[in-house]
Amino acid sequence: MSDLREAAMNSKAWPFEEARRVLKRYEKTPPEKGHVLFETGYGPSGLPHIGTFGEVLRTTMIRRAFEVISDIPTRLICFSDDLDGMRKVPGNVPDREMLAEHLQKPLTSVPDPFGTHASFGAHNNAMLRRFLDTFGFEYEFVSATEFYRSGQFDEVLLRAAARYDDIMKIMLKSLREERQQTYSIFLPIHPETGRVLYVPMKHVDGARGEITFDDEQGREWTLPVTGGRVKLQWKPDFGARWAALGVDFEMYGKDHSTNTPIYDGICRALGMRPPEHFTYELFLDESGQKISKSSGNGISIDEWLRYAATESLSYFMYQKPKTAKRLHFDVIPKAVDEYHQQLRAYAGQDAAQRAANPVHHIHNGDVPQSRMVVPFSMLLNLASVSAAHDKETLWGFIRRYAPEANAATHPDLDAAAGGAVRYYEDFVAPAKVYRAPTDLEREALTDLRDQLEAYDGPTDDEALQSIVYAVGRDRFDPLRDWFKALYEVLLGASQGPRFGGFIALYGVAETVALIDRALAGELA
């Protein structure tokens, strides 16, 4: 057994914990289907969003963790529920009047308002696949329309008709009395209008695999449940899909958690073992409200990538998936810097430590070297004091601080410098509020200025930090009041960097000039 596999079998990192649960399913006999199947689902009524990324990323991390501890082959299916009826016209698409004529039709039967694909569902599926491909996910795409119409689902649908009463008992317990009167697990697709019908069943013939119902005009119809003429309601569909595909693992958000017994019960009623599941907490916006794609609160994936690399978002997604987290712009700098801290630590870690390091799971064990010789938070402070509007301004400071660095050899640093400038312009500059120093702070700043002007030692973070520390130590109790004063008076912010490192990067003479401006009242 390799060192990593041995470490993974005991690691408390959540991808390995979940992978071991999946492996336990087959501790006695290997899967008859010859592989372990991971699944993630997608409702293609809108565009892919940051939650889609998080779900596929986390599932992929568990899949890769499984591959470390087992030689059983794996597959990941991304399932699009594109046979779902279009309940409302999205607000962000062209030709909305045309779409209104096709309400309640399956998305794959609705014309594409963008005019680029065979249907609206096909357009949104293409957007999903492009999105997943952009981030390098390895997956197999399955369309519900194709799954139903090709006959792949027929065996399970016939079993659902034969065991209709058992499945209805599971569903009815979860419904209000009023809804129970008209509910059916089957949704017929009208042979003439093509619309998905929410109508009660007059009869379900389990032996023949047929349903009988009246449409909205009172006309009676009998349809086979096979061949895509009927679809399942979404909760039964969940459990039936698990049964039909033989899914071993699926994760979903906390808003699904109360449905888990329903999904599992239906899968069992159809004669199959339910998969392992993992329920993750939902993201919150800056005010603590749940993020939703319909309300547009929080931050989009494109917005994150405007300021930072995908890996920093992956790092954020890795952290405590079962804890609700604020997903707002102010989490980006911390995520970037912590990601690079973990990269730097990885090289010196043993197998157990590497198994627990988030970057192992972000990079599937092929962990790159960090070239971020300047933290993102420090780049932001540089942008702030220099009022930078392009990354070349920051490179002027970086080259002096780290002469060996350039954009070609340090591409992650170059990209971060550009992101820092954009972040500064969008968030830091509008919020900057300088204040004048108090008498005690003025005295300390003057002392620091004079010591820096007289300093002729190396431009070393630690040596400069010692000067800053000594100036404040004798005047401020607690000492953090001194550093808070430095940030508020010199940087116009409530928090900031390790100040010795800032001086080393910004420049000793430049810091003297900055203090002079503050003492002269030019900043506040």
Keywords:
524 residues, alpha/beta, Rossmann fold, 4 domains, 5-stranded parallel beta sheet, 3-stranded antiparallel beta sheet, 24 helices, elongated
Write the layout of secondary structure elements.
Layout: H1 3-8, H2 14-24, E1 36-42, H3 50-69, E2 74-80, H4 96-100, H5 120-134, E3 140-143, H6 144-149, H7 154-162, H8 164-172, H9 177-180, E4 186-188, E5 201-205, E6 210-214, E7 220-224, E8 230-232, H10 234-245, E9 249-253, H11 260-269, E10 276-280, E11 283-284, H12 301-307, H13 310-318, E12 325-326, H14 332-346, H15 351-356, H16 358-362, H17 376-386, H18 391-401, H19 411-431, H20 439-454, H21 461-473, H22 480-491, H23 499-506, H24 508-519
Parallel strand pairs: 1-2, 1-9, 2-3, 9-10, 11-12
Antiparallel strand pairs: 4-8, 5-6, 6-7
Helix pairs in contact: 2-3, 7-10, 8-11, 10-11, 13-14, 17-19, 18-19, 20-21, 20-24, 21-23
CATH fold assignment of the largest domain: Rossmann fold
Q: For the residues shown, what is the average pLDDT?
A: 94
Helix content: 40-55%
Radius of gyration over all CA atoms, rounded? 29 Å
Counting DSSP E segments of at least 2 residues, the number of strands comes to: 12
The unreliable regions are none
The description of the largest β-sheet is: 5 strands, parallel
CATH 4th-level superfamily of the largest domain: HUPs
Shape summary: elongated
| Strand arrangement across the biggest beta sheet | 3-2-1-9-10
Tally of individual helices: 24
- CATH architectural name of the largest domain: 3-Layer(aba) Sandwich
C-alpha termini separation: 64 Å
Number of domain modules? 4
